[in-house]
Specification:
The protein is an alpha/beta fold and 251 residues long. The chain is built from 7 helices and 14 strands. Bound molecules: zinc ion.
């Protein structure tokens, strides 16, 4: 199994300036799952030799632009430019209700191109051919955002989505082989997001075999993501790595 990090930036600064891309990552095992397709999906897939027609499923954690902007674009690409109905989309209920006006939602047109789309609430488990997905709770503005615990190819992968720390966050991520953690800012606490101190708490409580940080915001123009990963490793005794655009992690 491998994880391909196409775009590891997050937030408005990266959406508008692209110090890092915001196109998300792909979990490639028996099935290929594209996670959080923010702006840059087509460009970055071409750059790193990804065939989007091989993607089986899409997971969107919440409907903010930096995580979901290219969802409909990706649906067109994975369906052979709309010629072949295929694929499945998982996301929070807020992604499927255009009236909520978060910026991105699934259009009827694009819904019809998919085999299925599945609104998920935290705690809900779904099984789909070769993988099982459990939606986890996130606390991120009013988006009703989610993360996941994914079981595929004998591995358990956790993903926080965008969330701040809250009581019960860690309980959702037990016995995790790889924990993918969004950390928009390290030093500056920011509502709705993890910072290095709350991330440390999460790592100490969950003790994953390996953790990878991603979705770095504008603060990392000055702060080195690798330094934050190193600091977290030494404090938590968990192996913590910082992802970068184009990083491929073999698991
Ligand atoms: Zn967000």
């Amino acid at each position: 199994m491998e994880i391909i990090f196409l775009g590891t930036g997050g937030g408005r600064v990266n959406v508008t300036h692209r110090f890092r891309s915001t196109s998300g990552f792909i979990v490639r095992g028996k099935k290929q799952i594209y996670v959080d397709p923010g702006p840059g999906v087509i460009e970055d897939s071409k750059r790193y030799g990804i065939r989007l027609t091989d993607i089986d499923a899409i997971f969107v954690s919440h409907p903010h632009l930096d995580h979901a902007n290219d969802m409909n674009v990706l649906i067109e690409a994975m369906t052979y430019a709309t010629n072949k109905k295929r694929g499945i989309l998982f996301g929070p209920e807020t992604l499927f209700n255009p009236k909520l006006e978060f910026g991105v939602s699934l259009s009827k047109y694009h819904a019809n191109l998919l085999d299925d789309y599945v609104p998920l609430k935290a705690g809900k488990k779904v099984k789909y051919e070769d993988f099982q997905l459990m939606a986890t709770r996130a606390k991120h503005d009013n988006t009703k955002g989610i993360g996941f615990v994914l079981e595929m190819d004998g591995k358990r992968i956790g993903y926080t989505g965008d969330t701040e720390y809250f009581e019960g966050l860690s309980d959702q991520y037990r016995n995790i082989d790889l924990f993918i953690i969004n950390i928009l800012r390290a030093e500056h606490k920011w509502e709705g997001h993890l910072d290095k101190d709350s991330c440390l708490k999460l790592l100490k409580e969950t003790k994953p075999k390996l953790a990878v940080l991603t979705r770095f915001g504008g603060e990392y123009i000055r702060t080195k993501a690798e330094d934050i990963a190193g600091w977290l490793s030494s404090k938590s005794k968990v192996n913590v790595l910082a992802s970068y655009d184009g990083y491929v992690l073999k698991l």
